[in-house]
Amino acid sequence: MDPMDRGMRYTPGSSSDMNWELADTFLPASDNKKLKKKRGPGKVGIIVVVVILAAVLALTIGLLVWHFHFRQNLQSQKIYTGSVRIANQAFVDAYENPDSAEFKDLANQVMAQLKSMYSESPQLSKYYIGSEVQAFSEGSVIAYYESEFAVPAGQEAEVDQAVNRLSSKVRRVGEKQGPLVFDHVVSSALDTRLFSKARASMRYSQHAKSSAEEIITSPGFPDEPYAPNTFVQWQLRGDPGHVLKLSFDTFNLEGNCSNDFVRVYDSLVAVDKHLMEEECGYNSPSNPLNFISSRNVMLVTFVTNEEGNFPGFRARMTQISQDSSDLACGGKLGGTSGSFKSPNFPSYYPPNKTCQWDIQVPDGKHIKLRFTTFMVSTGSLNHCSGDYVQIVGVSTLCGKQPENTIVTVNSNKMTVVFKSDSSQVDQGFSAIYEVFEPTDPCPYKFQCDNKRCINPPLRCDGWNDCGDSTDERNCQCDASMIKCRNGFCKPMFWRCDGVNDCGDDTDELNCGCNVGEFQCNDNQCVSEKLRCDGNRDCKDGSDEDGCSRDICKDSTFLCGNGKCLTKPNPMCDGQVDCEDGSDESNCNCGRKANSKPRIVGGQEADVDEFPWQVSLHIKNTAHVCGASIISEQWIVTAAHCVQDEDKIKYSQPGTWEAYLGLHTQKEKQKATKRLIKQIIPHKNYNANTYDNDIALMELDSPVTFSASIRPICLPTATDVFPAGETVTITGWGATREGGSGATVLQKANVRIINSTVCNQLMDGQITSRMTCAGVLTGGVDACQGDSGGPMSVLSNERMFLAGVVSWGDGCARRNKPGIYTTVPKFRAWIKEKTGV
Ligand code: ARG
């Protein structure tokens, strides 16, 4: 949205001045006419001629203004950065100096050939403005360039496709229309923030020395905070046969990457396919950010927006030989135990790297591999299509895996392959292998379901030592332990301590109430006799939860008086179906503010149009996920939003703040902020498959509903959303794959896709708890940052929460719908946990 805003505001000074001149000149002219008319009929002819001339002049000026002012505004400047390999040239040192005659000569040839390449494409030739070569590097010669196009509004996607087609054609068949032979092109559209004219820009070029470090810092560092509206780029190079190592020893930027950021590329131009990482926020010096390139070049860009002043950064650059042992990885491993890790661990691994370890242990033994740390970038695709670790014949892992993830092979040989692609790096992994006896995988120990072995006294001690809780299952609780309803045993002294240790609240029930009283989920006390009597005596109805009559609610609607209805979706349909009217009593939900007619496709939501939409921020930092209001104190989000990562404890309520009634991220001070009291992720959430991707958050205090804050209706457990039904998705997530988040809340309409079809499109990864929705031709979808937010469906003039944004394969790709958690499947669970 930012670029659009900027585009609309941009008005060249001279043409707007012209508008005012027009007004000044012609209003008096028509007044003159009236005055002169009174003076005498003889002059009428002259006046008519003058008026006509004036009108013609006004029309001409108007046309000119339209041509230069508005027509220009309807076009947007689009810059593609790219690199192209010139197969039939050899690198000479002078190519490093843009002022040398050799540089200029080759640059001119490259520009001429790019021009003739673009002229082959009808979509590109008409919008092409020109290209500029930024640098050359070794191998034969690689040219880095920027090409500029003036693209009329609405044609951007077509131009993107044409550029991609051209690049893949060059990769397939080469390009030799001129004297140069191009055999490999990588290019992508440049983020508008990297070329906005509103920013002061500085460009540097540095060559690593073998003896000393080169230092780069944000402007003003360490004496002053960095300035607003700055763009700085550093082209870094090393000698042939070397790679560059860049270590940030201080890094302190604003926490929101859509405001200020540093990007590190494995290239000399800012091309997305070689973006290693985008960084913002604070990084502790004890955990420095370290990058390694795959070749002898690297690009660092630093962008700041109009506000916020932070100290900035300092980084040191050195070059190391490609043969250095620092970069070595893979090989043959033996013995009965050992360890290995990804290159440069625990710093970022280099892009484009492949390592293979072949482990062979004594005959008759089997191998157990334990990853003490595992962080491998999945890239924009979720399912290990970016970087991965493959345990050949067993499994392929990527993303973030829990500490001490174990993989075993039932043989004495194991092959492990690590592969990184050209973009998005991460910290990698560290692994330990050891042998085990096939007959006794955990000698003298207890074996968890996840294959870990734990000391026997840790079993049934109330702590989850396995990591998957299997050491706490099937326990006989002794007198010093509480027997939780879900089968766990927890130490008695945890009873009534205000923490839900059992996970199902058993240890916190009947704490504050007198004998003979039942404590509701909201801590209210009601007479024990009222429990399961068919009436909701607790305000949250929890006295009727878990009762045998409750069984009806899985298949039908449960009225307040405990009666079940078989009518599908009776809630808030305008007809009283329950005797006690409870099906129509809680209908302050899902009312959408009126909005202008909409087109299918992403666009800005109107203010208050989706009053249940919540923006979840990491405290004092930035938007991370969406959520939906379901009551004064509860919101629903995705479980994957609340999983810990190495640096951030997403699972802790204290990490978060929720903004309700928010429209634009720029005005969060106008929204209602709440802290989080508790987070309940679904216990069967699976981080590998995204199954059961749903979580509940309780706000620290209730909110008062208003025009901008209102709950969405929850569907009943039996609701199904048929294929083809239109649903609405909303969020502040990225507006294109790999792009940055939106400032203003976005909305789009998509359609439910048949699950069988979807399962085929998504390689069999769809479970019955997932709903697919999208536009199969591509172009409309949720994306990174929309997670946890609502997929809403309109029924009886109210919006119901049909799904929660969960995952996808990239964003808005052809034949790749978005995947949503099916909320009806979790209706009973929501009721159980929240009483709503
Ligand atoms: N997992 C993403 C997030 O954390 C949401 C992805 C949705 N992707 C999609 N293509 N529908 O924000």
TrEMBL record:
Source taxon at top rank: Eukaryota
Q: Which Pfam families match?
A: CUB, Ldl_recept_a, SEA, Trypsin
Q: Which organism is it from?
A: Carassius auratus
What the entry lists under SUPFAM superfamilies is as follows:
LDL receptor-like module, SEA domain, Spermadhesin, CUB domain, Trypsin-like serine proteases
Domain CUB spans what residues? 204-320, 329-436
Name the Gene Ontology biological process terms: proteolysis
Q: Name one GO cellular component term.
A: membrane
Stretches that traverse the bilayer: 44-68
Q: What is its main location?
A: membrane
Q: Where is the Peptidase S1 domain?
A: 599-835
Q: What is this protein called?
A: Suppressor of tumorigenicity 14 protein homolog
The way it spans or sits in the membrane comes to:
Single-pass type II membrane protein
**Designated gene of the protein:** LOC113061764
